[in-house]
Amino acid sequence: MPTPTDAHQSANSLVAAVHKCCNTPNSHHLKQRKSVHWWTPETSRLRKESNYLRRTFQRKRKKLGAAASIMEAHNAKNKDGISASH
C-alpha cells in the first residue's frame, strides 16, 4: 500500500508534468503566409469581391433554399448576357 509520502510525490510529479505541457509552446499555429510575388492590388480587389459575392450567395441559399438560389443565379447570368459555356 502506498504511503502518504508516495502519494504526495506522485501528485507533485503529475502537477509538474501538467505544467510542463501547458507551458510548452504550441507548434500548431500556422505561420502567416507571405504575399505571393504575382499578387497585385487588382487581384486583391477581385478576391475581396469574390469572397463578398460568395458569402452573399451562401446566405441567400441558406435563407431561400438551394433551388431558389440556383434559379436566381441562372436568371442573373441571363440578365447580364453571360453564356452558359463560361
TrEMBL record:
Molecular-function annotations in GO: RNA-directed DNA polymerase activity
Keywords: Nucleotidyltransferase, RNA-directed DNA polymerase, Transferase
Protein name: Reverse transcriptase domain-containing protein
